[in-house]
Amino acid sequence: MSGASGTRAVWWWLSLAMLVVMAVFLLYPLLNILTGSFGSGGRNGWAQLLADTTYLEAIGNTLILATAVTLLSVLIGVPLAYLASRYSFPGKSALALLPLITLVIPEVITAQTWLMLLGNNGVITRALRAYDIALPSFYGWNGLIVSLTFTYYAYVYISTLAAVRGFDVQLEEAAQSLGTSPVKSRLKVLVPVILPSVMAGALLVFTMVMGNFGTSSILGGPVKLLSVMTYQAAVAEGGSDPVMQSTLASVAVGLIVIVLFCQRWILSRGRYQVVQGRSARPVPLAGGQALLLGGAAGAVVVISLMPLVMLVAGAFTRARGPVMAWGEWTFANFERLLLTNPAPILNTLLYAGTATVIGMMASTIISYMIVKKRNTFTPLLDYLGTLPLALSGTAIGIGLAMSFNGGWLPLTGTGAIIVLAYVIRRLPFAMRNASSTLYNIPDSIEEASISLGVPPVPSFFKVVLPLMLPAIASAMVLTWAVTVSELSTSIIVYSGGRETMPIQIYKLIDSNLMASASAMGVLLLAVILIPIVIATKVFKVELFSSG
Amino acid sequence: MGIKIENLGVTYGNHRVIEGLSLAIEPGSFFTLLGPSGCGKTTLLRTIAGFIDASTGRILFGGSDVTRLPAHRRNIGMVFQDYALFPDKTVNDNVAYGLRARGEEGATMRRKIGEALERVGLGHLGERHPAALSGGQRQRVALARALVIQPQVLLMDEPLSNLDAKLRLQVRGTITELQREAGITTVFVTHDQEEALAMSDRIGVMKSGKLEQVGTPSQIYRESVSAYVADFVGAANTIEIDAPAGTAGQGTASIRLAGHAMAARVPAPLTGPKAMFVARPEDISLAPRGEGGGNRVAGTVTGRQYLGGKTSYVVEIGEGITLAVETHGDGHDRHVPGAAVDLGFDPQKTLVLAS
Ligand SMILES: Nc1ncnc2c1ncn2[C@@H]1O[C@H](COP(=O)(O)OP(=O)(O)OP(=O)(O)O)[C@@H](O)[C@H]1O
Ligand SMILES: [Mg+2]
User: Fold this and answer.
1) A453 and B149: CB-CB below 8 Å?
2) Which domains are present in chain B?
3) Please, are residues B149 and B74 in contact by the beta-carbon 8 Å criterion?
4) Nearest CA to ligand 1 atom 1
5) Which pTM was predicted?
6) Å from B211 to nearest chain A CA?
7) pLDDT (tens digit, 9 = 90+) per residue, B79-88?
8) In this prediction, does ipTM exceed 0.90?
9) CATH assignment of A45-315, given 1.10.3720.10, 3.30.750.24, 1.20.210.10, 1.10.1740.10?
10) Of the residues B42, B160, B193, B212, which should be mutated to test ligand 1's pocket, given the most ligand atoms within 8 Å of the CB?
11) How far apart are CA A479 and CA A360, in angstroms?
């Protein structure tokens, strides 16, 4: 074996092996979904889809919902980001909590707590009912739009914030010096610069709403939605419909692919690359302005934090079945969960723990090859690694269930299929984290080690890996956080006795047992937060160091 | 230990970057690869190091073929443009890295580290991390790290280009001194001609993957084999002219430059109907019209830049044909723009090369 090509062969085989693994667990399920939609024995899912107006209605509703939530998210997220980066006002530091909140609070919990406030039995609904004021029903459009907006607007906020911060004030000043008025020059110069980031955040929200299952199913009420119908076609007891589940999952995939292509196209037109310059020093606000803007920003933060407060209150409130006895505090909800059925907690720890470790290792190795050891296969690995972004959680679940139900790799009914679901869904997230740190480690470091006599593979472990460790640690904690709250895929592939915490919460909400659901939610938050706190406080891991 | 390269070819995919390159580097000498961006200097250096595979040809270190030897077994010292220090290790641990890989430890290792750092003048900074060093200090640590393992050859890819002008001179001095002291065969890559002339025993000027000329600094500068080399190594006036008749061989020929007849040297046989007139600005003398000696050409000063110890002029000698001229000595700035002047050429220093 020759010099450099000897070690290159190792990476060549490894990337081929990874490609095969990804093809089996990603492409094969996708293929099964698509072929399944054409049915067998003359029953074609696409014909049925077009014939039945409820399906078309669900697709229309999904698009309307995604559009509405995206617009509202931009309306909240963009001004908030501008406010946060350009002005300082009392209480501003609370805004820094926002990215954490969105990552940490699982959307089922957000939906649940909105129900506890405004649902048929909600605190506010009942209080107003005492004064004979009837609120419009929260099930349906109202609930969906409100809850999903507050679940997702922070994505627009975060991406806009980065753009406004990186924006060179000199550009704005230059425009002013050329004679345009401040407001006009701001719009003229700033808008085109931050637009790509706003768009990126908005499209992310759009795809997430389209793929959303938990909130859609809990709050959807009479509104038919694609993800919920797909789920029902997949798991409805006695009524599951293999052809329709494939067809609807294909539609979901198709819609997201179209959106992602639009995103590509918009980003490719983004000639707006700004050289990082002097970013604006925040202007202090005072008096009425401070009160108004600070108040508005504060309201957004308070509403975002509301789920936490409701959750904790609900968890410690005595309940008889669905009826909450507000004001009567108790530990009974926790006792019941921990004593009678601790399985969901243990399952979550086991599956998410395994998936996080596997996912981190796989994403580190794959990203390393993509960034540092490019060969014929690595561009394909890159594409496959981002593919799960184009698949809704429900579609991934259906694909896995169809592909590994018996046959040569029977995984249905095992914990492995849940772990697999977790790894696949969070792979793009983990890979993005890993590759961004790898791009920051110059190739010369590794070559320096080799030139000093250490072979390539030990060189990786001795000099590259130690430099990646801080980033791996933070990515691991974040991956853990987003994995334990996964619902839409696991709820399709799990089997009795293998419920995870989000699945259990979903079931409890479905049975209207809000107190138990709250207690489980608090435990879920603890499972998410404890590693984050330990990592940041004890091990000084910096989360969001890049953002 | 000498380096010998025989008929080397390197390709990236289908893109042929180095072709049929042969070169012999004397044991213990300082060899510089000089050339414009993209000509393949880094590629050649990294192929010598073993990071890139040769598609054809052989590389020999002191007579033994290393073409198929992996980089980590070639016993090379390498210094990178971006220092490539391990940021999580102290200066001491950076220098120790290669020694540890060779199984050294304990007191001997510590002594070697101390000596290596002492030699680059950083004996007191061993406990620091690279982030707490200046650019010049970092490159010195990198140098110590590369030399402490007593490599057979030292390879450096533009090690000075990230440093500011003053530091560049200092580190340049350190490199030359250490290289001479250790007598280690060195290949140095740069696109700075001044660096190349000042530091090297021999220079190889590269042009799109091939060596255009190999020679000592003065050979490269004085006896450039082509206008490309002459222009790259120091400023040169290059003007295309008709090839002088009857100069198939070498010697002095009479040529016509912008309509003026004059004599120039033809160092190598010319091919084709056109040739390149090459004269360095400092080799051209300048005198008021009528006061010049032999072998002169009349012109008009069209530009002047006073540079302290010398003055740089632009002189027009024909419609749109200008020459850069540099004068030193007393009254070097006495010619004013618009003045009619005579340009004097030394036939030995004025070359006619194949174009
Ligand atoms: N990994 C690569 N894949 C394909 N082509 C490459 C690669 N690396 C370099 N090249 C090409 O090979 C040629 C030589 O590159 P090389 O880096 O050796 O130039 P260089 O002389 O070191 O230039 P510079 O002075 O800018 O460092 C260039 O045309 C470059 O575009
Ligand atoms: Mg180079």
Assistant:
1) yes
2) 3-222 (3.40.50.300), 240-354 (2.40.50.100)
3) no
4) B12
5) 0.79
6) 24
7) 998 889 999 9
8) no
9) 1.10.3720.10
10) B42
11) 8
